[in-house]
């Protein structure tokens, strides 16, 4: 990211919006917003995702619910927050539980759509664990819905993403839904 260019453009944006970027309330705004973008979009590059071996006679599922993260809507550059539940059926590896949270943050901290966020989290969990049974449910609050013309206060947006092979296996989906509900979230 070119922080200098971003700061200059933000100052120009204030002028274009008819504001005086030198007035006290706005003087530090371009630098402050640039710091926000730098921190938010530069989140967690290069962290490792630990997996552990998993061997069991029966069949298991894992779900982590209550994962709250914030993202930026790529259509309006306005924030949205989501609460996610990630569920998967491990084959021979499980992910460290906190890694699921980290994966959610990693994919949230960019210009994003709620629909794609769920898909990216699921694909990452599948890639790291080798599982083909991964599902992500999310409920989101979009400030672009609240602040723009529709003024849709109190609306919530729910999404479900099922990894492709899983979508054809309703019994497996139901199994994941059950553990996800225990984790407090499959809607
Ligand atoms: Zn939006």
Automatic annotation (TrEMBL):
Keyword vocabulary terms for this entry: Hydrolase, One-carbon metabolism
SUPFAM superfamilies membership: Tetrahydrobiopterin biosynthesis enzymes-like
Top-level taxon: Bacteria
Name this protein carries in UniProt: GTP cyclohydrolase 1
Key word Hydrolase present: yes
Any one GO cellular component localisation term in the record: cytoplasm
Domain GTP cyclohydrolase I: 8-175
GO biological process: one-carbon metabolic process; tetrahydrobiopterin biosynthetic process; tetrahydrofolate biosynthetic process
Organism: Kitasatospora xanthocidica
Pathway: Cofactor biosynthesis; 7,8-dihydroneopterin triphosphate biosynthesis; 7,8-dihydroneopterin triphosphate from GTP: step 1/1
Reactions this protein catalyses: GTP + H2O = 7,8-dihydroneopterin 3'-triphosphate + formate + H(+)
Entry EC no(s): 3.5.4.16
